[in-house]
Amino acid sequence: MTTLPLPMSAAADSSRIGADIDYELFLDCVHCGLCTSACPTYLELGTEMDSPRGRIYLMRGVVDQRLPLDSQVKRHLDLCLDCRACETACPSGVQYHQLLEPFRAAMQRNRPAAEQPLPGWQRWLLFNVLTQAHWVRWALLPARVLQALGLDRLLAASGWSRRLPDRLRQMQEMLPELPLRHRPLPNFFPAKGKRRAVVALLAGCVNDALFSATNWATARVLQLNGCDVWIPRDQVCCGALHAHAGCEAEAQSLARQNIEVFQRRSVDAIVANVAGCGAALKEYGHLLAATPQAQAGQRFAGKARDVNEFLMELGPIPPTHPLPLKAAYHDACHLCHAQQIRQAPRALLALIPGLQLTTLDEAEVCCGAAGSYNLAEPDMADRLGQRKASHLLATGARAVFTANAGCLLQIRKHMQSLPGRRWIAHPMDALWASYTGESPAILRKG
Ligand code: SF4
Ligand code: SF4
After folding, report:
1. Does residue 92's CB lie within 6 angstroms of at least one atom of ligand 1?
2. Do residues 272 and 305 both lie within one domain?
3. Using a 6 Å cutoff on CB, does residue 33 contact ligand 1?
4. pLDDT of 129-156, one tens digit each?
5. 179 is a domain residue
6. Tally of structural domains, the chain
7. Which of 54, 123, 174, 204 is the most buried (most CB within 10 A)?
8. Cα–Cα distance between 56 and 52 in angstroms, integer?
C-alpha cells in the first residue's frame, strides 16, 4: 500500500477542497488498475483520467495541492457517473463514492454559476420540482393531456419536437406513457392473510409521478405477501439527487425530515422500490455522521431495504399465472454496486411460471441514467444508453426488467426506436402480473 503522509496543510485549513474527506480512504488505492475495465466512462473513452484510478489520482492531487482544480480536472470528475462499479471491482475495498461525493460537494461550493454542469433553470427544476411528487404531477399535466389526445406522436412525427431546446427535448424524450389521471396511493394497505411483517414504503417523487402503477404493484405485492404497508403522506424526497450532485446540506435536510416522518410508527422495514432511493436511505447514517442526528440516521439506515431484498428475506409466496416471455434483467448500479443486491430480483423473477430469464452482456455496466447525469452529460449518457440497448437487443428478450426508475426511463428511450416491441418494467410489475393474471400489453396484443 502507498504510504504517502497526510499533507501538513490538510487538517489545518477547513476551507480547502477535500478538507472533509477522510484522507486515509485515498491510501486504500494501490493503483493496480483492476477497476478500469468495470468503469463505463473508461470503456467508452479508454482514457486513464476517465477511469476510477485516474480520478482518484486527480482528486488526491488536488487535495495534496499538487494539482490545480482546473477545468480539465473538473471535466474528468463531472463525467463520472458515481455508479460505483469501481467499488465492486476493487480488490482493495476502495470506497470511491466516499471520495467523490465530498469532493464534488466542495467543487460545487467553489463553482461559479456559469460553470455548473446544469443550467440554473434545470437545477431549479431538478431540486425544487422533481423532488416533490405533487409538483412533478402538475408539471407533467400538459404531457399527460398531449399523450391522451395522441398529439405527442403527431408532434414527434411532424418534427416539431426537434425544434425544442436540446435540454427540454432530452427531458421530453424520456417520458414514459402517462395515465391521464394520477391514482394516489392510500396511506395504508392491510396485510392479506396472516400478517408476517409491518413495513413503511418510500413512494419516491419522480417514481410516484411517472411510475405510479409500479408503486401500486409494489404495495400490493407486499400486501399479498402478508405485510401491513404504511405509506406516510408527508414523506419527502430521499435526497439521492442532491447527494450525487454535491448538494450535501439539502440532502441532509431531506434525510432529517424522512427520519422524523418514518419514526412515527414502529415498522420492521422501510422499503424502497427504486435502487437509487434505497441506496440513499441506507446512506443516512453516513450522510448525517457529523451531525447530532448521526445515531437516528444509523437506526433508519439499518431498517432500509430494497423491496426485492426484503421479499427474499421474508420468503415470497410464489406467483402462479404464467408470463411466457424471454426476459433480460439489467442490474441498476445502485442496486448491484451500492447495495450489493444481484440475486434477489433474479430469484423473484425466476418464480414466475413461463418467464425465461436470459443472460445479458455487461448487465452491471451503467445504462447512463445515473440520477441527473443524463441531463447534465447527455452525450456520454446517450453513448451508454445505446451500448445498453444494443446488448439488450442482442438477447432477443421481449421483456426487460430493472429495479430503478432512472434506468427504466433511459432504457425505454434508447429501445423505443429499435425493431420489435418490448415490455420494459420493474420486477414488481412482473410479480403483480403473475399474482393476478393481469397480462401485460405485450402478451395481450401478441
Ligand atoms: S480503486 Fe481499487 S482496483 Fe482501482 S486502482 Fe485503486 S486499488 Fe486498484
Ligand atoms: S463511479 Fe462509475 S463512472 Fe465513476 S469512476 Fe467508478 S466506475 Fe467509473
Report:
1. yes
2. yes
3. yes
4. 666 677 777 777 767 666 666 666 666 6
5. no
6. 4
7. 204
8. 6
